[in-house]
Specification:
By secondary structure, this protein is of the alpha+beta class. The chain has 15 helices and 35 strands. The strands form six sheets. Strands 18, 19, 20, 21, 22, 28, 30, 32, 33, 34 and 35 form an eleven-stranded mixed beta sheet that branches. The protein has an eight-stranded antiparallel beta sheet with strand order 12-11-17-8-9-16-13-14, with no helix packed on it. A seven-stranded mixed beta sheet has the order 2-3-1-4-5-6-7, with helices on both faces. The chain starts with a strand and ends with a helix. It binds guanosine-5'-triphosphate (GTP) and magnesium ion (MG). The site of magnesium ion has 5 residues, from helix 1.
């Protein structure tokens, strides 16, 4: 069988993984002259394209000097760390990208820890050396120190280094080289990445690391073959994580090259292929030789840290905008999600609600965003951290937070974070008028913080965080300072009322928006909630008004995106999500019930 190398590309968010894969695809001659190529080709789904981030790990393959190189591009955002964890076992080495200016960031630490644990010896790619403020030597030192802290072996500490400007298609072994291609990196992959172990002569052992779906052929498992061969039409044994075994026939065997998929007849150990014919296949399952089924260890993924409740929408506008609104439909959709995404979990809570657990707000928002695009309607509660009992002690997730802020704002950032129980662990001037401040903070303290951070730094700060560990519960943290403006009427909002209300705070609605009693239509400038009437029209009088007071000026409403709304809400509020709208509402729509609930809560304290 052919010569193979398997690698994953891992890094902190935006350090250039997908861009690097583009260049490897282009420069290995995978495309013909006529093929049109675009940027970040592997970011193929709509939300990935819109946001310019990778969400799902995806594999591709290139042929270079007669060697097949299978490459898995992974997401860098901390919320999708589960995707990275599960592919690390499928490869024999990793390309660890580090931005030549930003250096080691929270998610760099996370992916390095996981890669070293598995025993990989990473190839370190110092990327973006074209940046003016690049300091490649400093970054290599940082990476060395990080490996050392993470308990790297001697061999892992002697990692190969290569410098790159992926955007320009350049890689070089030393900074003074004038090479203008990716060839040095491609050669390094052939030299440094170990060949797959195992043999074609052994019984089949293959593990599924991601799932696909095709309308014609059904569920597809994308898998690495660790031992043996697999052929089209062959009967093999599917072994599930719980040990259950089912025999089935391979109805389709698919190979990868570049962005193409093609039918193949046979594949051998070390290769990555897609297989159809097993409707019950899940991530982590093995396919084995029916004569002697020896499944591979199930994939272990770190537990979720955050939960929210997805519930059937019961607002007065329920069912008017969505296609799928029932509890059954929502549950089916969540089942489908958890099948392919082993970093998420859900549990039914009563009749019409589901507690969905994930790694962070973005992961949960992306699921919700996908669902609304598919026509779902539902409500989401405020994210809560998952508390775990460890040795009899109540523990909560802590995060490592790195803030890069212009010097003049560092004081206010430290102060606000202090109230959220963050402890500063490091502070260094970055030389360009900004400071890098590192904190350890309970994940709870980060909920809803991003908006505040952007305000505190006039939009110039950059913050990044990544899961650290579970630690003993750290006491209460401050939450939203402002109350809500709550509608007391149902109907369509009127420009005249909004004009009169906008002195009271920041509006979330525009004239002619649908509103209902209990819906939150804005943020009050004070701490308490205020019931207001946004549907009241101007009193008609017989006296003709002078033209002047008709030209009222409406301040544009704050754009409540799903993310924004989720960050903003408190425990007594919900976000109503439909394919058309994102609305914020009180859990209790009825004002007197709301007051009673509030009073009860105060009495309990
Ligand atoms: N200056 C410079 N910019 C680069 C380079 N490589 C990538 N970029 C830019 O960095 C940004 C992020 O690139 P991506 O390839 O999407 O990064 P990524 O690591 O795949 O990001 P995630 O998948 O979201 O973690 C894009 O705007 C790229 O154009 C480089 O070598 N130099
Ligand atoms: Mg990417």
């Amino acid at each position: 069988m052919r010569d193979i190398r398997n690698i994953a590309v891992i890094a902190h968010v935006d350090h250039g993984k997908t861009t690097l894969v583009d260049e490897l695809l282009k420069q290995s001659g995978t495309f013909s002259e006529r093929d049109e190529t675009e940027d970040r080709m592997m970011d193929s789904n709509d939300i990935e394209k819109e946001r310019g981030i990778t969400i799902l790990a995806k594999n591709t393959a290139i042929d270079y000097k007669d060697v097949r190189i299978n490459i898995i591009d992974t997401p860098g955002h901390a919320d999708f760390g589960g995707e990275v964890e599960r592919v690390l076992k499928m490869v024999d080495s990793v390309l660890l990208l580090v931005d030549a200016q930003e250096g080691v960031m929270p998610q760099t630490k996370f992916v390095v820890k996981k890669a070293l644990e598995i025993g990989h010896r990473p190839i370190v790619v110092v990327n973006k050396i074209d940046k003016d403020a690049a300091e490649p030597d400093r970054v290599v030192d940082e990476v060395f120190d990080l490996f050392d802290q993470m308990g790297a072996t001697e061999e892992q500490l002697e990692f190969p280094v290569i410098y790159a400007a992926a955007k320009n298609g350049i890689s070089k072994l030393s900074l003074d080289s004038d090479n203008e291609t990716m060839i040095p990196l491609l050669d390094m992959i052939l030299e440094e990445v170990p060949e797959p172990t195992g043999s074609d002569d052994n019984g089949l052992q293959l593990q599924v690391f991601t799932l696909g779906y095709d309308n014609f052929i059904g569920k597809i498992g994308i898998a690495r073959i660790f031992n043996g061969t697999i052929s089209m039409g062959e009967t093999v044994t599917l072994v599930k994580a719980d040990g259950e075994k089912v025999n089935g026939r391979v109805t389709k065997l698919i190979g990868f090259k570049g962005l193409e998929k093609m039918d193949i007849d046979k594949a051998g150990h070390g290769d990555i292929v897609a297989i159809a014919g097993f409707e019950t296949v899940d991530v982590g399952d093995s396919l084995c030789d029916p004569k002697n089924p020896m499944p591979l260890d199930p994939l272990h993924i770190e537990e979720p840290t955050l939960s929210v409740t997805f519930a059937v929408n019961n607002s007065p506008l329920a069912g008017t905008e969505g296609k799928f609104v029932t509890s059954n439909k929502i549950q089916e959709r969540l089942d489908a999600e958890m099948n392919t995404n082993i970093a998420m979990q859900y549990e039914a809570k009563g009749e019409a609600a589901f507690e969905v657990r994930g790694r962070g707000e973005l992961q949960i928002t992306i699921l919700a965003e996908n669902m609304r695009r598919e026509g779902f309607e539902f409500s989401i509660s405020r994210p809560e951290v998952i508390v775990r009992e460890i040795d009899g002690v109540k523990c909560e997730p802590f995060e490592h937070l790195v803030c890069d802020v212009p010097d003049e704002f560092s004081g206010s950032v430290i102060e606000t974070l202090g109230k959220r129980k963050a402890v500063m662990s490091n502070m260094v001037p970055m030389g360009d008028g900004s400071t890098r401040i590192e904190f350890e903070i309970p994940a709870r303290g980060l909920i809803g913080y991003r908006g505040q951070f952007l305000t505190d730094t006039k939009g110039e700060g950059v913050m990044n965080h990544s899961f650290l560990e579970f630690r003993p519960h750290s006491g209460s943290v401050t939450s939203r300072m402002n109350g809500a403006l709550v509608s007391m009427e149902q109907g369509e909002s009127v420009a005249y009322s909004i004009f009169n209300l906008q002195d009271r705070g920041i509006m979330f609605i525009s004239p002619q928006d649908k509103v209902y009693g209990g819906m939150v239509i804005g943020e009050h400038s004070r701490a308490n909630d205020l019931d207001v009437n946004p549907v009241k029209a101007k009193q008609q009088s017989n006296v003709r008004s002078s033209g002047a007071d008709e030209a009222i000026k409406i301040i544009p409403a704050r754009d409540m995106s799903l993310e924004h709304a989720l960050e903003w809400i408190e425990d007594d509020e919900l976000v109503e999500v439909t394919p058309v709208s994102i609305r914020v509402r009180k859990r209790e729509l009825d004002p007197s019930a709301r007051r009673r609930a509030e009073k009860q809560k105060k009495d309990l304290k």
